[in-house]
Design a protein that fits this description.
It is built from five helices and 13 strands. It is an alpha+beta fold and about 325 residues long. Strands 1, 2, 3, 4, 5 and 9 form a six-stranded antiparallel β-sheet that branches. The chain has a four-stranded antiparallel β-sheet with strand order 10-11-13-12. α1 runs antiparallel to α2. The longest helix is centred in the N-terminal third of the chain and has 36 residues. It is elongated, with a radius of gyration of 26 Å.
Length: about 325
């Protein structure tokens, strides 16, 4: 079997020259391209206090679904918060039409994950800009804004790239690989915050406080959840009924899920409840779709640069970088 021959001195000199050109010229060209793309991505996230002039603009999204007309509504998004909500719900049993809207003094930051925290304590790491509490009985809930977090990760990726400006000289391929890995980590986290909704339990949804944002107050047999999934703003309404103490059903509390199904059970206070109906409506957010495309293109550029750096290792018996 033929074996690969080691490069000659001339070939090695040519390869080393090509590698130096890659480090000194092409790497910076790719970094400039990444900076331009990520700045465009960052501009899509117009959040209050993000350096943009004036407050974030309000955008109205009409919610709908091809599978049901039980729920219709309009959500108003301002930055990473819902500033207004107008929801109509047709009750399945009697076709009664219920109408709910946000209280004028309330806004709701789009949250992906909430976690229980004991009263009087805070999570180990709390970002004052993107976390806020909502009380639920004797417990406290903390949630993080999906859009804020995604933008924070983009900003961190831009910061990493800015630290390696045109005047910086990369001396080894390992430096480039380390930088690309760090940038890709931030971009992957940004994308995941938008594409991977949290798996919440029904008690977490009930305790989130969103249900208490509406006027008139939602009936006790309704739960509402709002979240980002990919490029869509999603609203889910759960209708509940109480399981009687003498019920013959085997009570099994449901675990966490992005979307609970009818029949899911949970305990809330002294009651055992079961989901009877689930209604989900959604609307596309165009600028989130743009951001996701920018993330994908940037990740591809990072990987292509990593591949170019790594291919030189096949020409040496040792890693030349």
């Amino acid at each position: 079997m033929a074996t690969a021959m080691a490069p000659t001195a001339v070939e090695r000199a040519v390869l080393e020259e090509e590698f130096r050109w890659l480090l000194h010229d092409e790497v910076h060209a790719v970094l400039r391209q990444l900076q331009d793309i990520l700045k465009e991505a960052s501009l899509r996230f117009t959040l209050p206090g993000s350096g943009m002039e004036g407050p974030a603009k309000q955008e109205n999204f009409i919610l709908g679904s091809s599978g049901t007309d039980q729920v219709k509504g309009v959500l108003t998004l301002q930055g990473d918060a819902l500033s207004q909500a107008d929801v109509n719900l047709k009750m399945p049993r009697n076709n009664q039409l219920l109408h709910f809207a946000f209280r004028e003094d309330k806004q709701w930051k789009l949250q992906q994950k909430v976690s229980y925290v004991r009263p009087g304590t805070k999570p180990a790491s709390v970002c004052a800009m993107c976390m806020h509490p909502a009380r639920a009985g004797s417990q406290q809930l903390w949630g993080r804004s999906q859009i804020q977090d995604a933008r924070n990760h983009v900003s961190q990726a831009i910061y990493l790239l800015n630290n390696r400006d045109e005047s910086y000289q990369f001396r080894t391929g390992a430096e480039v690989l380390k930088l690309m890995d760090a940038v890709m980590l931030q971009l992957t986290r940004a994308r995941n915050r938008l594409t991977t909704p949290a798996t919440l339990t029904l008690p977490e949804i009930a305790a989130s406080g969103l249900t208490r944002m509406f006027t008139p107050a939602l009936p006790s047999d309704l739960l509402v959840n709002v979240y980002i999934n990919l490029n869509k703003l999603c609203l889910t309404v759960y209708q509940l009924h109480t399981l009687q103490p003498n019920s013959t059903k085997n009570f099994r509390p449901a675990g966490g899920s992005v979307l609970h199904s009818p029949g899911a059970m949970f305990e809330w206070g002294a009651q055992r409840l079961e989901v009877s109906h689930v209604h989900k409506v959604e609307s596309v957010i165009p600028w989130l779709n743009d951001a996701l495309v920018f993330f994908t293109v940037s990740l591809q550029l990072c990987q292509q640069l990593k591949d170019k750096i790594s291919v030189f290792s096949s020409y040496w018996s040792y890693r030349p970088f």
